[in-house]
């Protein structure tokens, strides 16, 4: 009898009930009891869904009111001292997550290569973890039992926890290793009194990364110890998002019950199976990260390959990772075209897929290979010529065409999106106002925005992006090949959810995407108007992308569509075009050996999107992060004329890498941080400019905010840009 396993389940609720309950509670409209009641209803419902599909291993403690890393911090008693003055536990928990009047929130960052954000633990050398606390776990465990589910208990593993933490005192966090493992041992001991025969799942996705050997030796020490805390416990260590071959060699010799591996994003794990050593293999074969229906025959073949190396009795059929990363269910989609909907599988549908493959596997009933689905004609990279001359040649031509002053000033694209802007857009989408009325209102916003930029004295203007809901969705809606779900929400952090576009088909451009707005904006001014597009890599990284053809082919289709837009813009006399690659870095693989292949298609598809630009058309790109250390050569190969980046918080420290690499093109390092409403002073920005000039030749420097201004208010935006311009005049 083979069994089924779900690594973890989404918690936000099929109608985002948790989101709304949290937001009402935060707004003071309901009390904590009301929030707890919603949370309990959701957990019960989610367990039920899994029970109905006869899942053998169902989790508890995969639920959270905000984030599992934050819950782990609380479980280990690792409350940062700066929050200790908050007595009420709930207030403290949410203050850590979101900040309050007296406390800045803890840092938040992306969980591996996903769009889920966790709260980064703040550790320091003297932490003793003496107050471990399993009350949340116990409560959920007992609740599940009452519902007839004997749940496994999910914990973030100790190595992943330490590695993802920040040392606030700059100490080496690995000095805390012993104390942390001791705390986990106490947690396990406490758990062992909850009942008989409890499976504890330790999530250790850290081991899907390329790591130094020291981590592997610590892995051994940790699980040799945690594996023997109680005979009452079955310890499973699960990894996901990529292969974890090195870890398997270690874990195979640890006194644990099971090892979880991702065979969807780490098929190389097949080579590690020799080392599983008679333990249970939690075989992640149902894709937990993407939304397309499982290819049953492919999955069956995979199980066959696994069973060549491992006794069938040892195999537990699982999701490749927690289902947290996919939306809840396709059953709420009423407007999707049948050809799209029929190809989708969200969390609930994946439970059915688990049950289905398990039944086939049990009966050893090999499914027919599915008929080869019709493939889109593939656009090879070579089909899109890159004809731009060398940077030096382009620079001279662009100088002549644009005649920009020293330290040209610009913005990243968006200007404040007020309630009114959004209200008009929504009214148009709902058919409440006519297209004419909507476009007139957009033109009004663009006009005001252009006038403001002229009054401020910026050199390169933008139209303000008032037509956009989001930088990917906007383009997706105009391109062929994309679909949009009504309810495909995925938790991004806390109560925040995103609804990624579904890139399901062959991508093409049947109409202009931005030309009208840019041309209208340009008609209002003699200053150059910057056309504003989103690049292919970012479009892919922020969508659910079809997986029946290689990602690189999809990227080239998107690139071709963007290139057509670039061409049309330049033919309409738009002399500067920015192709944003905000999510370029996010797509980097966890494994070093896979980076080259990613960089290859990412750079080539970006170049394919701009390759059509004439030499005198100046191409900008924008990236929202600052650490370019490892990727500076790759950035260089993208061959943009100007790159704007987010370095406002580090002076010139992060720019040094551009100097070291002898980077030739122009850079706009972001003189102020747009993530805060604070208006930086002229002096502050003058200091920043001076710091930049310590490392960059003056001809290379642009002056701009560090990202788009859409989340800011108008008054702070005007004040900050005015100060920025003053600082630039002083520097000139
Ligand atoms: C997240 S990067 C944003 C770039 C976009 N052009 C904007 O200004 O909003
Ligand atoms: Zn940005």
Give the distance, in angstroms, between the N- and C-terminal Cα atoms: 76 Å
Describe the main β-sheet briefly: 8 strands, parallel
Shape: globular
- The helical percent reads 25-40%
CATH architecture of the largest domain: Alpha-Beta Barrel
Number-wise, the strands total 22
Secondary structure layout plus pairing:
Layout: E1 3-5, H1 17-26, H2 32-52, E2 59-60, H3 68-75, H4 89-98, E3 108-110, E4 117-119, E5 122-123, H5 135-146, E6 152-156, H6 158-164, E7 166-167, H7 177-192, E8 198-203, H8 213-226, E9 233-238, H9 245-251, E10 258-262, E11 280-286, H10 296-309, E12 315-319, H11 338-341, H12 347-362, H13 391-402, H14 419-429, H15 435-456, H16 473-478, E13 479-483, E14 490-493, E15 496-498, E16 502-509, H17 515-523, E17 530-534, H18 536-541, E18 544-545, H19 551-571, E19 576-580, H20 595-610, E20 618-623, H21 632-638, E21 642-645, H22 656-660, E22 666-668, H23 682-695, H24 714-731
Parallel strand pairs: 1-12, 2-6, 5-7, 6-8, 8-9, 9-10, 10-11, 11-12, 16-18, 17-19, 19-20, 20-21, 21-22
Antiparallel strand pairs: 3-4, 13-16, 14-15
Helix pairs in contact: 1-2, 7-8, 8-9, 10-12, 14-15, 19-20, 20-21, 23-24
The structure holds methionine (MET) and zinc ion.
Describe, in short, the structure shown.
The protein is 39% helix and 13% strand.
List its traits:
single chain; 732 residues; alpha/beta; TIM Barrel; eight-stranded parallel sheet; five-stranded parallel sheet; 22 strands; 39% helix; globular; binds methionine; binds zinc ion
Description:
Helices cover 39% and strands 13% of the residues. It folds into two domains: 3-362, TIM Barrel (Alpha-Beta Barrel), CATH 3.20.20.210; 389-482 and 512-731, TIM Barrel (Alpha-Beta Barrel). The protein is built from 24 helices and 22 strands. It starts with a strand and ends with a helix. With 732 residues, the protein is an alpha/beta fold. Helix 8 (213-226) runs parallel beside helix 9, helix 10 (296-309) crosses helix 12 (347-362) and helix 20 (595-610) packs parallel to helix 21. Bound molecules: methionine (MET) and zinc ion. Zinc ion binds next to loops. 5-methyltetrahydropteroyltri-L-glutamate binds at residues 19, 115, 496-497, 542. InterPro entries: Cbl-indep_Met_Synth_N (IPR013215), Cobalamin-indep_Met_synthase (IPR006276), Met_Synth_C/arc (IPR002629), UROD/MetE-like_sf (IPR038071). It comes from Sulfurospirillum diekertiae.
């Amino acid at each position: 009898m083979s069994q089924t396993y779900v690594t973890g389940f989404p918690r936000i609720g099929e109608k985002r009930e948790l989101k709304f309950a949290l937001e009402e509670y935060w707004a003071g409209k309901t009390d904590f009891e009301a929030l707890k009641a919603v949370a309990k209803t959701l957990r019960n419902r989610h367990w039920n869904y899994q029970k109905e599909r006869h899942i053998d291993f169902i989790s508890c403690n995969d639920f959270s009111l905000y984030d599992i890393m934050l819950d782990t911090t609380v479980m280990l008693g690792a409350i940062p001292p700066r929050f200790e003055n908050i007595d009420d536990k709930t207030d403290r928990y949410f203050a850590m997550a979101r900040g309050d009047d007296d406390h800045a929130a803890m840092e938040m960052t992306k969980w591996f290569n996903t769009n889920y954000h966790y709260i980064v633990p703040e550790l320091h050398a003297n932490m003793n973890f003496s107050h471990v606390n399993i009350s949340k776990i116990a409560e959920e465990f007992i609740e599940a039992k009452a519902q007839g589910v004997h749940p496994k208990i999910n914990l973030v593993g100790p190595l992943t926890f330490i590695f993802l933490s920040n040392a606030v005192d700059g100490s080496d966090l690995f000095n805390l290793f012993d104390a942390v493992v001791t705390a986990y041992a106490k947690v396990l001991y406490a758990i062992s009194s909850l009942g008989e025969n409890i499976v504890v799942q330790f999530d250790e996705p850290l081991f899907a990364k390329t790591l130094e050997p020291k981590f592997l030796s610590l892995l051994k020490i940790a699980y040799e110890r945690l594996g023997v805390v109680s005979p009452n416990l079955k310890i499973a260590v699960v990894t996901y998002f990529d292969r974890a071959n090195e870890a398997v060699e270690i874990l195979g010799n640890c006194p644990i019950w099971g090892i979880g591996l991702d065979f969807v994003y780490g098929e190389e794990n097949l080579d590690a199976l020799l080392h599983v050593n008679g333990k249970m293999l939690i075989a992640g074969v149902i894709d937990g990260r993407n939304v397309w229906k499982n290819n049953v025959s492919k999955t069956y073949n995979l199980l066959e390959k696994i069973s060549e190396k491992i006794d069938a009795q040892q195999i537990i059929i699982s999701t490749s990772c927690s289902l947290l990363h996919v939306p809840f269910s396709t059953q709420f989609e009423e407007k999707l075209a049948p050809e799209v909907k029929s190809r989708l599988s969200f969390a609930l549908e994946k439970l059915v897929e688990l049950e289905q493959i398990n039944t086939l596997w049990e009966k050893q009933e090999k499914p027919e290979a599915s008929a080869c689905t019709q493939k889109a004609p593939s656009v090879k990279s070579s089909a899109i010529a890159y004809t731009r001359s060398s940077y030096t040649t382009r620079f001279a031509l662009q100088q002549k065409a644009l005649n920009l002053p020293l330290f040209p000033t610009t913005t990243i694209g968006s200007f404040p999106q007020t309630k009114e802007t959004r209200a008009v857009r929504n009214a148009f989408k709902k058919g409440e106002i006519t297209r004419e009325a909507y476009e007139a209102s957009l033109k009004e916003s663009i006009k005001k925005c252009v006038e403001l930029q002229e009054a401020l004295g910026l050199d390169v203007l933008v139209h303000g992006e008032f037509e956009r809901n989001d930088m990917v969705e906007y383009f997706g809606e105009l391109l062929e090949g994309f679909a949009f779900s009504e309810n495909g929400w995925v938790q991004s952090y806390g109560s925040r959810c995103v609804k990624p576009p579904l890139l399901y088909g062959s991508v093409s451009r049947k109409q202009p995407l931005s030309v009208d707005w840019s041309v209208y904006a340009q008609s209002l001014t003699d200053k150059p108007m910057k056309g504003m597009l989103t690049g292919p890599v970012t479009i892919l990284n922020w969508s659910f992308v079809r997986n029946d053809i290689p990602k690189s082919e999809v990227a080239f289709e998107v690139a071709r569509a963007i290139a057509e837009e670039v061409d049309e813009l330049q033919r309409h006399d738009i002399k500067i075009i920015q192709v944003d690659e905000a999510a370029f870095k996010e797509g980097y693989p966890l494994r070093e050996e896979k980076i080259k292949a990613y960089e290859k298609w990412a750079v080539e598809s970006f170049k394919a999107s701009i390759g059509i630009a004439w030499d005198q058309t100046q191409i900008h790109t924008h990236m929202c992060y600052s650490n370019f250390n490892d990727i500076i050569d790759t950035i260089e190969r993208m061959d943009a004329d100007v790159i704007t980046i987010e370095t406002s918080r580090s002076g010139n420290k992060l720019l040094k890498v551009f100097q070291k690499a002898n980077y030739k093109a122009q850079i706009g390092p972001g003189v102020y941080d747009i993530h805060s409403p604070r208006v930086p002073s002229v002096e502050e920005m003058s200091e920043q400019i001076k710091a930049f000039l310590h490392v960059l030749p003056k001809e290379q420097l642009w002056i701009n905010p560090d990202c788009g201004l859409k989340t800011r208010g108008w008054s702070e935006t005007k004040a900050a840009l005015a100060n920025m311009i003053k600082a630039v005049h002083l520097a000139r």
